[in-house]
Design a protein that fits this description.
- There is one protein chain.
- This protein is 33% helix and 28% strand.
- It has 198 residues and is of the alpha+beta class.
- It has one domain: ECO RV Endonuclease, Chain A, CATH 3.40.600.
- The strands form two sheets. A six-stranded mixed β-sheet has the order 1-7-6-4-3-2. It has a three-stranded antiparallel β-sheet with strand order 5-9-8.
- Helix 4 runs antiparallel to helix 5.
- The longest helix is centred in the first third of the chain and has 23 residues.
Amino acid sequence: MEETNKILAKIDFLRIVFARIITLLPKFDIADKTVLPYGLKPHTRSVSWIVEQVIVQQAKFRKDELGLDEVSFDMPDTCLHDCVISKSGQKYFVNVKIHNIGGKENKNDISAVEKLYFQYSANPDYDLVFACVGVSFKENSIFFDPNYLEIFSAQFLPIYVNPRNDKIQAKYNHKMEIRSRKDFLKLLKKNSKSIILK
């Protein structure tokens, strides 16, 4: 119970932080019309890495304004989290996602099961929280939607594993399934082909 309450407290804290971040985020252009004369394809895949970088770099740039001690985003590509937010001795491991608010709420690949399993097994202090921010597209510009924000924990995800790529799939606005770390690891192992083979 104490373990799950700590995760819920992290979610509540990060919801406040990211709600503030998205009100501060500027609209920005990906390229001018000489480069992209027909505009961006309104699909998150076309811009996701850039938009995630805008979010984490703005969080670091505005850390004092946000009341944070530090925001680190120099992570290897293989890392589950995009940034580490530090506040009062507490570290928050955050993976940033984006959602095209002009699209439907479908199931999305959230994270690789094998990576989650081994990170959670190896480090008992590791809790991964996802922050999903809404964006809209207009020609070559990206706009952040201050009314769309989903904050959720890896440990509380509904466990459906895509058999084609061994990734957990869920809607960003899913209902949390509160469970212990031990139960989370059991479910990952039970539903994954890659972990069983190891």
